[in-house]
Amino acid sequence: MQIELAIPDVAMLFTQPPMSGSSVRQALVSSSESLVSGATVCCDSTFAPEIVFVVGDTQFEGNHVSCWRLTGSDWWGALAMDRTTGVDAWTSEWPVGSMISAALAANEAFKFVMRRLPLRGQADRVFFEESQSCNWDFGAVHVPEEGVDLGMVDVISAGAICQAALYALMRFPNVRMSGRIFDDDLTGASNLNRNMLSSVADIGLLKVQVVARCCSAKLRLKPIAVRFPGDSCKIGQLARRVLVGVDDIPSRWEVQRHAPGWIAVSGTSHFGVSSSAHRPDEPCCGCLHPVDDPVGANPIPTVSFVSFWAGLAMTVRLLRDALASSYSANRQHLWLTPLRMDLPHAGMWLPVAPRRDCPAHCLASRVL
């Protein structure tokens, strides 16, 4: 598969790990073969792309292949096919909108490939249809010019979701954070398609070490090579804010039982994303996910952009909490189906109801 990016060679404003280079184009070209084996990036005027993504108001002459234009604002991103008029240049200061539009583009690249493959059931083809246009909006919130101090934040898992969350967080100017990251897993070759902070050179290294090193320019994370809850002597008291990126449901309950303050939980299931946040007085992640997945011990097939959406949603929740602008109770839970963001119910904001049988025995469940 070949993709063309029509993009001006603009300068990098600050370090963008794991990319390196003084300009966007240079950073993309230097990433060739280093992020995913076999994924090459080059500047080639004779290149024959199969799909094209055009960024902002960049001028582009169509060449009879599928072409989408990416647009957006600080907190909103969009994608539209064959749009050539009425588009604006990127002038946003905050990066959420650009990451939304990039994730929407990744959806289309994936679906382009899937349409070439035989499917087990013809009914599944609906998931892989082209989106003529689609968008997503996390809702605008004011970020002070001096930035945001997130304080101490503990991160449970150094896998795809938490790497996506930290990747997104590092794209914000003037964000400060300290904390710890817990995981005992090693970086594998199969992780590279979705672990946003990992490269081919990191295969075989502890994920927590890879993440802590990659984030060190902006975020101070202490790597703890222990799977939570693990050794309580090594873990100690959790921070007042905790990010949880594990798909294992009992592990989420355990974090909820130990967390003294706010936690955000993101997970994936098939092509769907679940993201929620919980203060001590609110229904918890045990109320939201009260039953363990009976197939939780089996390998989980994961595609890169689904994990990225889960991490991005978690980062937005973290920033909003730090800015005292958390979502309302009727938006405590977000369910996303990224493959078809052009459909009316692809993203659903939902409340979380307390349950008497909450496995984490949260405060909201005990007062029923």
Describe the fold and architecture.
The protein has 368 residues and is an alpha/beta fold. It has two domains: 3-137, no CATH class; 148-366, NAD(P)-binding Rossmann-like Domain (Rossmann fold, 3-Layer(aba) Sandwich), CATH 3.40.50.720. It contains nine helices and 13 strands. The chain has helices at 24-30, 96-114, 160-170, 207-215, 232-235, 249-258, 285-288, 304-322, 363-366; strands spanning 3-6, 51-55, 66-72, 76-81, 133-137, 148-156, 175-182, 219-224, 241-244, 262-269, 272-278, 333-336, 347-350. The strands form two sheets. An eight-stranded mixed β-sheet has the order 8-7-6-9-10-11-12-13, sandwiched between helices. Strand 7 (175-182), helix 4 and strand 8 (219-224) form a beta-alpha-beta unit. It starts with a strand and ends with a helix. The mean pLDDT is 90.
> Whole-number radius of gyration?
20 Å
What order do the strands of the largest sheet run in, or round the barrel if closed? 8-7-6-9-10-11-12-13
Number of strands: 13
Q: Please tell me what the overall shape is.
A: globular
Count the domains: 2
CATH fold assignment of the largest domain:
Rossmann fold
CATH top level class name of the largest domain: Alpha Beta
Structure classification: alpha/beta
CATH superfamily of the largest domain: NAD(P)-binding Rossmann-like Domain
Mean pLDDT: 90
CATH architect. name of the largest domain: 3-Layer(aba) Sandwich
Number of helices: 9
Order of helices and strands: EHEEEHEEHEHEHEHEEHHEEH
Largest sheet data: 8 strands, mixed
- Alpha-carbon distance between the two ends: 55 Å
**Portion of residues within helices:** 10-25%
Beta strand %: 15-25%
